[in-house]
Every structure is written in C-alpha cells, then in structure tokens.
Amino acid sequence: MAKSGMEKGKGKIKETVGKVTGKKDMEAEGKADQMKGKAREAGEKGSRRGTKAMDDLKRRTS
Questions:
Q1: Cα-based distances in Å from 4 to 13, 37, 38, 60
Q2: Apex CA 22: angle with CA 25 and CA 13, to 5°?
Q3: Which of 45, 51, 41 lies closest to 3 in space, CA to CA?
Q4: Are 5 and 38 in contact (CB under 8 A)?
Q5: How far apart are CA 57 and CA 39, in angstroms?
Q6: Residues 37, 41: Cα–Cα separation, whole Å
Q7: Distance CA 14, CA 17 (A)
Q8: pTM for this entry
Q9: What is the mean pLDDT of each run of 10 residues along the chain (62 residues)?
Q10: What is the DSSP string of 1-61?
Q11: Among 1, 17, 10, 48, which Cα is nearest to 56's?
C-alpha cells in the first residue's frame, strides 16, 4: 500500500507543477502516475482478498 500511495502522491505533485508552469506533458505524466498508483492499489487489495479467502478456506477444512 505504501508504494501505491507514494505513486499517487508523486503524480499529484507532478500534475500540480505542470498546471502551474503550463507544461501539459508534465501534467499528463502526473495524471498517469496517479492512475498507476490506483491500479497498483487495486492489485494489492485483490491480492489481500485472495490471501484472506485462502486462509478462510484452510480454516474451514481443518
């Protein structure tokens, strides 16, 4: 979760700096970084759910 948060934060900073300086490429790069962070977060969340489901299944069969 830490990596996804860092990626989203870095992206937000880039986006803001891009808006302030008028650099559309930096603004777009910031938005892309934020989307990567959100995607990573969703993947991490899915992984945690999968692990929890496996643990629950193991407990039920034991």
A1: 14, 4, 7, 33
A2: 70
A3: 41
A4: no
A5: 27
A6: 6
A7: 5
A8: 0.74
A9: 86 96 97 94 90 88 74
A10: -HHHHHHHHHHHHHHHHHHHHT-HHHHHHHHHHHHHHHHHHHHHHHHHHHHHHHHHHHHHH
A11: 48
Q: What is the pLDDT of residue 61?
A: 81
Distances (CA, A) of 41 to 5, 13, 44: 8, 18, 5
Q: So what's the pLDDT on residue 62? A: 67
Predicted local confidence at residue 1, as pLDDT = 62
How many Å apart are CA 10 and CA 37, to the nearest integer?
Answer: 9
Output the pLDDT for position 26: 96
Site of tokens 């995607």: 39
